[in-house]
Amino acid sequence: xxxxxxxxxxxxxxxxxxxxxxxxxxxxxxxxxxxxxxxxxxxxxxxxxxxxxxxxxxxxxxxxxxxxxxxxxxxx
Length: 76
What we know:
This protein has three helices and no strands. The protein is an all-alpha fold and 76 residues long. The termini are far apart.
């Protein structure tokens, strides 16, 4: 479920923002993972899981960016 949530956030970022937003989003994901593990909540976030989430967000960002470009071309 976390992959779906991160992918949705990536698509929304791609529709609205440019590359610095992806860097900031990845930083928020990293900080959130560290806090999640530090609080001892269930579902420990490993390095592999973090990398999968970051990859999903980056791919979804590219999809959102592509949709944004296509929408601008059809409007022009």
